[in-house]
Amino acid sequence: MIRLILNILWFIMGGWLSGFLWLVGGAILALTVVGLPWSFAAWRIASYSFWPFGREVVWAGEVTGKDVGCFGIGLNVIWFVFAGWYIALSHILIAVAEAITIIGIPFALKDLELAKLAMLPVGATIRVKP
């Protein structure tokens, strides 16, 4: 019940905007054939941005025991240089503003997870917490 309340508050207070912007960004990336590898990652992040509580980010090494490989690392480096750092910075700034209030701390923690996702989107999956 707490997860539902937190998700509803998150969605109303800006989760819808964050998720929508990730969807639009993924669609723009998909229009450019070169951006297809990142568009799927952006859509995963969008689903997490809409409804983050009760779900967790799992990195490739934690699930399969294998890293993302050279291709994935290259994609993450390119993403970080051209888009990831300033998207992550926006999530960090929002997290700082949320953390000022006690009630905003759970939201700040989710924004910090989104910042990490924004920096390195390739190789991350979202799953329901056990």
Précis, in short:
With 130 residues, this protein is mainly alpha-helical. It has helices at residues 2-31, 36-50, 60-64, 69-99, 105-119, and strands spanning 55-59, 124-128.
**SS element count, helices:** 5
* Helix fraction bin: over 70%
**Apparent shape:** globular
Low-confidence stretches: none
Strand arrangement across the biggest beta sheet: 1-2
Distance between the termini: 15 Å
The total number of structural domains is 1
Number of strands: 2
> Taking Cα atoms only, what radius of gyration do you get, to the nearest Å?
15 Å
What does this structure look like?
By secondary structure, the chain is mostly helical. It has helices spanning 2-31, 36-50, 60-64, 69-99, 105-119, and strands at residues 55-59, 124-128. It has a two-stranded antiparallel sheet with strand order 1-2. It is globular, with a radius of gyration of 15 Å. The relative contact order is 0.17.
Write the layout of secondary structure elements.
Layout: H1 2-31, H2 36-50, E1 55-59, H3 60-64, H4 69-99, H5 105-119, E2 124-128
Antiparallel strand pairs: 1-2
Helix pairs in contact: 1-2, 4-5
Attribute tags:
130 residues, mainly alpha, 2 strands, globular, two-stranded antiparallel sheet
